[in-house]
Structure formats: structure tokens, C-alpha cells
């Protein structure tokens, strides 16, 4: 499971750190630290944290699989 956080979008509301402290932590008032390769057992907490982000800065499994080409596209 891969996680990506758009740190330009993140505003430091810390909802993710509250809901999934094993994955997300705040360093100071604004800097977010996170584990980009979280354990699969944390998927439910991670989904809750991503959904709770007011600016939708958390992407789960965003980089796991390459996009497939659409048949007929060149």
C-alpha cells in the first residue's frame, strides 16, 4: 500500500494524525511527517484519515499501478 501526501495542499489541520497516529505525525505546528509505505493492516485507519482531510491532500495507492492504455488510443 502506498501513500502520497500533497504537501503543497496540506494545511496542517492534523485530522490524519489524530485518526492514524501510527502513520501520520505533526512535527511542530505545520510540518506533516508520514510513512509512505504503511502496513496493509492500517488500511481502514488510513482510509478514515484520507476521508477526514479537509483539503483532500492524502492519496492512497496513488502510485501502485501504472495507468493502462485505452484500446484504440495512439
Molecular structure report:
The model has no long low-confidence stretch (mean pLDDT 85). The strands form two sheets. A two-stranded antiparallel ribbon has the order 1-4. It has a two-stranded antiparallel sheet with strand order 2-3. The protein is globular and about 50 Å long. It has helices at 15-19, 43-52; strands at 3-5, 24-27, 31-34, 58-60. It is of the alpha+beta class and 74 residues long.
Low-confidence stretches: none
What's the overall geometry?
A: globular
Biggest sheet architecture: 2 strands, antiparallel
Cα separation of the termini? 31 Å
Radius of gyration: 14 Å
- Output the helix-strand order: EHEEHE
Cofactor: [3Fe-4S] cluster
Organism: Streptomyces wedmorensis
Pfam family, one: Fer4_13
Protein name: Ferredoxin
Itemize the secondary structure elements and their pairings.
Layout: E1 3-5, H1 15-19, E2 24-27, E3 31-34, H2 43-52, E4 58-60
Antiparallel strand pairs: 1-4, 2-3
Descriptive labels:
alpha+beta; two-stranded antiparallel sheet; 2 helices; 4 strands; 19% strand; iron-sulfur; transport
Give a quick rundown of the structure.
This protein is α+β, with helices and mostly antiparallel strands.
